[in-house]
């Protein structure tokens, strides 16, 4: 172990460039043609397949796998893109063991599902790499639609609307489009600038104008958008991070995990990114795992993830948890932070074990202290700014009915900012798509087409 | 341990697994390695007449049909008989037989269809020490265009004539290898017997085009943009071969004629099936060409195990299933079964449902939670659900007890009765 790895405090360059290159390489490298064919042969082509039902976008999985098996990967890609235009990203980030692969009948047959995610990547990579956009726009309708947020929901919505002949303008607060695909996902899941390549490819359909650096509430108002456009779709995500609300939270080196993940994604030189030696991550979701694993991969000596409830309630999938532990992350369940300790700078975190009594989480008398020179908070996100006239649900998200209709006429919402769903990329894609269909039906009177 | 020693028309071999006349038996090097690997015998690749040997194409000789994971299911070839000088083959045969006296060594022959040619070649092989000859009346490509191979095998009179010559000019046991590229395999087998053949071997390869190159628009294997039909073999042809072997075994005119079974034998089980249908031994080619000579070791241990488990001698197996091969009209129409789905074993893929609902008798119901149940009122016991189910023994056929009512027909199961006496059979009525 290099000396840098053991240096206390938050320092850059804990690992060599070679070590970093290995650590941040593609976590699930693509299948080659032979591997894809061997895997595709395992699909039973089930009747009314459970994997389709389990996919929030309803991709016809047995069909696309059969198309791979018959050596027509582009046809397979089109089967996917008809249902899910971000099928390339979903192939990389979907928690497939909870979705399609979790429902694969091969689990019952031999405990090993068909590797649907890997096959989906095989099917979609070729068409995206090819560059030429495979969909054609319908005749122009003359309708103009504003999509706020260039994340999965917004992109999916915009593409479907553009395909139907509408003119779409996407506004996004950040410098680059992609939303969480660009800023919120561990680097090793989407390497080589895939998120931007995918957006560029998606935009290839035409009819979509991208305006980055335009934030709702700062540069735009919902009222003006409603006035200027025939419809508005909000896919603004959850821009604010929940606070721990414990003593010491404001100490130096206590930060939001989402910022760390975003910095990593945007870094040209990961070796220049400082990371602690003793890192504590608070939370149990995908964001917590992505922060913890990447801290470890940057060279932190001890990384501990602490979640207040039990393992089976963690938001991170089992696959993600296993991946974290395989990288050396320690996961502690059933403990909550009660104080961040230190003198202006964090030095340790005090935890109390939790108990469930009558369905309520309580702190117990017992606890422990973890030394920490860096703390990442990943205990959930929420809507950033109140959106004056929009009704919110109990969860604090935008209330919607049916395919994303908000309480305001002519305004739809989908993705993480809207109520319901599992805050997954694939759910956001489905919601954006379905809202687009509803918007189209409203504006043109055409029937809704939900692919299957 | 069961004794696998085999005696086929007087030819002894340590086991009933022979390599068929084909590329694996083309020369001394291969045959020695085959014997070292454990093969009981070989049929040396077909020798032709004295003189300049035949030539082969210099492009691909084989085409293939793949199953999942590129498993070779079928192979076709356009290779001709040996393209090496006769003297070289004869010298090598003699040397190998001298070193492996316990193994069977048969020489495959194919010469022009005239008496002199056959007399001459038989004289040439006389002192090789070989155990017998196999007359190649089967190759369907190339040589057939020159009046040999299947061109002879498709005319029973020629088979009889040549076999007679062979028996007249040689004391060697004579096996006649039959082509499947005919309408009724019993006719050439009968002709071989009339000519005095000691045995028949079958099947030779089947005329085939394995695939079409959809860019070149040419059949595979493709030689300079063109292709020719080749001989098809391997696991895919086994069902056809089994039927032909059984037809000869149960035909009164050929019953008892020894048969060497050929056609897709890949495992001990395939070999046992051929033998149960009347083959005295088996010949193998594609399995060796796919996996190498070592496959014989699995065949040997597998057949040992099987015979031991059933407390049978090898001779007990040969022909044991022949009495159960019948014409359709002799099948029991009062044998009634119904599909039963084992819900514990079911993985809920729904393939049985799709197959039955779309293409059969709508006798499987899909209930909530993806529970699939047989509707006995509709089930005709076709077995398609069993065949398409990916889980072995998940769907089975339950035999109705005598007297139990078939819910589909409302008729109680009766005693054995077949079509010959069925009231719907006009012939049965006329006979009364």
> What is the makeup of the main sheet of chain A?
5 strands, parallel
Q: At the third CATH level, what is the topology name of the largest domain in chain B? A: TIM Barrel
**Domains of chain B, number:** 2
Q: Quickly count the helices of chain B.
A: 14
> How many strand segments of chain B?
22
What is the CATH T-level topology of the largest domain in chain A? FAD/NAD(P)-binding domain
Category by helix and strand content of chain A: alpha/beta
Helix content of chain A: 25-40%
Structure explained in plain terms:
Chain B: Pfam families: DHO_dh, Fer4_21. Chain B: Belongs to the dihydropyrimidine dehydrogenase family. Chain B: It catalyses: 5,6-dihydrouracil + NAD(+) = uracil + NADH + H(+); 5,6-dihydrothymine + NAD(+) = thymine + NADH + H(+). The complex is a heterodimer of chains A (452) and B (432). Chain A has 17 helices and 15 strands. Chain A is of the alpha/beta class. Chain A folds into three domains: 98 residues, Fumarate Reductase Iron-sulfur Protein, Chain B, domain 2, CATH 1.10.1060; 157 residues, FAD/NAD(P)-binding domain (3-Layer(bba) Sandwich); 140 residues, FAD/NAD(P)-binding domain, CATH 3.50.50. In chain A, the strands form four sheets. Chain A has a five-stranded parallel sheet, with helices on both faces. A five-stranded parallel sheet of chain A has the order 6-13-7-8-9. In chain A, α6 packs across α9 and α14 crosses α15. Chain B is α/β, with parallel strands linked by helices and 432 residues long. Chain B folds into two domains: 319 residues, TIM Barrel, CATH 3.20.20; 103 residues, Alpha-Beta Plaits (2-Layer Sandwich), CATH 3.30.70.20. Chain B is 30% helix and 21% strand. An eight-stranded parallel beta barrel of chain B has the order 3-4-7-8-9-10-15-16, surrounded by seven helices. The longest helix of chain B has 15 residues. The radius of gyration of chain B is 25 Å and the shape is globular. Chains A and B meet through α8 of A and α12 of B.
């Amino acid at each position: 172990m290099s000396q840098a790895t053991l240096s206390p405090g938050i320092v850059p360059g804990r690992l060599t460039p070679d070590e970093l290159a290995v650590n941040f390489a593609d976590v699930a490298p693509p299948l080659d043609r032979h591997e894809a064919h061997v895997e595709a042969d395992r699909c039973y082509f089930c009747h009314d397949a459970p994997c389709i039902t389990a996919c929030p976008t309803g991709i016809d999985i047995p069909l696309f796998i059969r198309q791979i098996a018959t050596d027509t990967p582009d046809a397979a890609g089109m089967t996917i893109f008809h249902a899910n235009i971000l099928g390339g990203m979903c192939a990389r980030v979907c928690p497939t063991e909870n979705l399609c692969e979790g429902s694969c009948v091969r689990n019952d047959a031999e405990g090993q599902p068909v590797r649907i995610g890997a096959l989906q990547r095989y099917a979609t990579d070729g068409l995206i790499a090819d560059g030429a956009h495979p969909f054609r726009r319908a005749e122009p309708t003359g309708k103009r639609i504003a999509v706020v947020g260039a994340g999965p929901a917004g992109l999916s919505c915009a593409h479907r609307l553009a395909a139907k002949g509408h003119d779409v303008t996407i506004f996004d607060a950040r410098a680059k489009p992609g939303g969480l695909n660009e800023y919120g996902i561990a680097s090793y899941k989407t390497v080589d600038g895939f998120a931007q390549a995918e957006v560029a490819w998606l935009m290839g359909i035409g009819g979509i104008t991208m305006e980055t650096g335009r934030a709702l509430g700062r540069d735009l108002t919902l009222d003006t958008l409603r006035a200027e456009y025939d419809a508005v779709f909000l896919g603004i995500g959850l821009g604010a991070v929940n606070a721990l609300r414990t003593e010491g939270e404001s100490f130096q080196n206590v930060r939001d995990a989402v910022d760390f993940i975003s910095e990593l994604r945007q870094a040209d030189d990961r070796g220049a990114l400082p990371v602690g030696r003793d890192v504590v991550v608070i939370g149990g979701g995908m964001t917590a795992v992505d922060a913890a694993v990447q801290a470890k991969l940057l060279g932190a000596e001890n990384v501990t993830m602490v979640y207040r409830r039990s393992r089976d309630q963690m938001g991170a999938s089992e696959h993600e948890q296993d991946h974290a532990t395989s990288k050396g992350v320690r996961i502690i369940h059933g403990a909550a932070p009660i104080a961040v300790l230190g003198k202006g700078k964090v030095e340790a975190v005090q935890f109390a074990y939790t108990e469930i009594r009558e369905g309520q989480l309580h702190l117990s008398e017992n606890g422990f202290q973890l030394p920490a020179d860096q703390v990442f908070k990943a205990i959930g996100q929420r809507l950033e700014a109140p959106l004056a006239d929009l009704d919110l649900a109990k969860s604090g998200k935008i209330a919607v009915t049916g395919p994303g209709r908000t309480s305001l006429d002519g305004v739809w919402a989908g993705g993480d900012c809207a109520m319901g769903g599992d805050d997954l990329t694939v759910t956001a894609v489905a919601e954006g798509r379905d809202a687009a269909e509803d918007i189209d039906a409203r504006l043109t009177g055409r029937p809704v087409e939900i692919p299957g | 341990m069961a004794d696998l020693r085999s005696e086929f028309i007087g030819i002894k071999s340590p086991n009933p697994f022979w390599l068929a006349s084909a590329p694996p038996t083309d020369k001394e090097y291969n045959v020695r390695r085959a014997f070292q690997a454990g093969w009981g015998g070989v049929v040396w690749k077909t020798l032709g007449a004295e003189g300049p040997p035949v030539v082969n194409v210099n492009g691909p000789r084989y085409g293939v049909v793949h199953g999942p994971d590129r498993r070779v299911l079928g192979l076709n070839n356009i290779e001709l008989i040996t393209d090496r000088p006769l003297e070289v083959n004869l010298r090598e045969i003699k040397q190998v037989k001298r070193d492996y006296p316990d193994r069977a060594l048969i020489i495959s022959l194919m010469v022009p269809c005239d008496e002199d040619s056959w007399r001459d070649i038989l004289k040439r092989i006389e002192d090789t020490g070989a155990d017998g000859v196999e007359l190649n009346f089967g190759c369907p490509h190339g040589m057939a265009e020159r009046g040999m191979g299947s061109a002879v095998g498709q005319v029973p009179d020629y088979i009889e004539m040549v076999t007679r010559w062979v028996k007249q000019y040689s004391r060697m046991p004579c096996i006649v290898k039959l082509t499947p590229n005919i309408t009724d395999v019993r006719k050439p087998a009968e002709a071989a017997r009339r000519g005095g053949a000691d045995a028949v071997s079958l099947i030779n390869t089947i005329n085939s085009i394995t695939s079409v190159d959809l860019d070149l628009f040419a059949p595979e294997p493709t030689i300079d943009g063109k292709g020719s039909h080749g001989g098809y073999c391997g696991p895919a042809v086994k069902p056809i071969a089994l039927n032909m072997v059984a037809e000869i075994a149960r035909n009164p005119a050929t019953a008892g004629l020894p048969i060497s079974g050929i056609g897709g034998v890949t495992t001990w089980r395939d070999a046992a099936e051929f033998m149960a249908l009347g083959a005295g031994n088996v010949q193998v080619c594609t399995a060796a060409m796919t996996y190498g000579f070592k496959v014989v070791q699995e065949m040997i241990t597998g057949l040992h195990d099987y015979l031991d488990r059933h407390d049978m001698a090898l001779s007990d197996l040969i022909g044991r299933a022949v009495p159960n091969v019948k014409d359709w009209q002799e099948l029991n129409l009062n044998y009634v079964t119904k599909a039963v789905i084992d819900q514990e074993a079911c993985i809920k893929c729904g393939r049985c449902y799709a197959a039955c609902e779309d293409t059969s008798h709508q006798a499987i119901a899909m209930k909530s939670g993806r529970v699939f149940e047989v509707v006995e009122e509709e089930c005709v016991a076709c077995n398609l659900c069993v065949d398409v189910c990916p889980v072995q023994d998940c769907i089975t056929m339950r035999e109705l007890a005598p007297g139990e009512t078939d819910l589909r027909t409302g008729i109680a199961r009766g005693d054995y009765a077949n079509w010959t006496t069925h009231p719907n059979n006009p012939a049965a009525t006329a006979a009364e």
